[in-house]
Amino acid sequence: MHAREEFEEPEPTESGTRDRPPLVRELLLVAGLFLVYKLGRRLAAGHTAEAYRNGREVWDLERALHLPGEGAVQSSLLHGDALVQFANTYYAAVHFPATAAFLVWLYLRRPNHYVWARRALAAVTAAALVLHLAYPLAPPRLLPLTGLVDTARLYGPSVYGPPDADQLSNQFAAMPSLHFGWALMVAIGLIAVTRSARRWLWLLHPLVTLLVIVGTANHFWLDALAAAALLGLALAVVRRPRHAPAPTPVPRPSRPGALVGAGR
Predict the structure, then answer these.
(1) CA–CA separation, 69 vs 63, rounded Å?
(2) Which residues contact 242 (CB under 8 A, 6 or more apart)?
(3) ∠ CA 127-132-136, rounded to 5°
(4) Alpha-carbon distance 83 to 213, whole Å?
(5) Half-sphere exposure of 112 (CA within 13 A, CB side)
(6) If DSSP codes are grouped into helix, strand and coil, which group holds residue 251?
(7) Within its chain, how far is the Cα of 133 from the centroid?
(8) Rounded CA gap, 160 and 87, in Å?
(9) What is the DSSP code (8-state) at residue 7?
(10) Taking the C-alpha atoms of 97, 128, 116 and 240 in order, what is their torsion angle to the nearest 10 degrees?
(11) Which tens digits make up the pLDDT trace of 16-45?
(12) Is the pTM value of this prediction over 0.85?
């Protein structure tokens, strides 16, 4: 009997790892994405009356569609100061860092999927900014007819000042919710590139984000649905890279001194 050949199988790596995009270029592109997100929203400012009118229309549409009231989520948050402060902090502090960390991890570990995720995020952000311009929308916390309160202003922390004096953000760009759209992309991306049985727990991020944006009265349910629809369109257009095929096993050389045919 011939001596058995032993095989050594290298650790699988993502196809195209050597084609990682240049770091400086990607830093500029991602920084530009965040800058467009912040500055582009300002272009929709100055449409206060229209934004309030659209807000009332969205509220009435949700009631006609029998969507659950945003007030039920907010009432749950208001049972304790710690819970509502957690929601306000999550809204203010998790959105950008979580998305940035997601892109950094993909860049380092899954470069092909990084390009896919970055393109999808850029596409949904650009589409959202167009919708912000075309359909300015006041959030429910600014509409007295909703009966909802501005939890960030009452309990803190808050990232917004008075709408008429806020020079840092456009508070009338509620439709769609990029908070939810980006969170959903983070979860989808991590589920797509990992193999752990617990990877589905990443869906907790968009779920918590959804409850937070609704409970703090920063968004309507329909804002999140619109973001999910735009992300679905973006993912349909941006092709997802395929996983690399399993590498061919490499034969390990026989032990020195082993005789061919020994053991016959």
Answers:
(1) 8
(2) 15
(3) 155
(4) 14
(5) 14
(6) strand
(7) 21
(8) 15
(9) E
(10) 130
(11) 445 677 888 878 877 777 777 666 666 655
(12) no
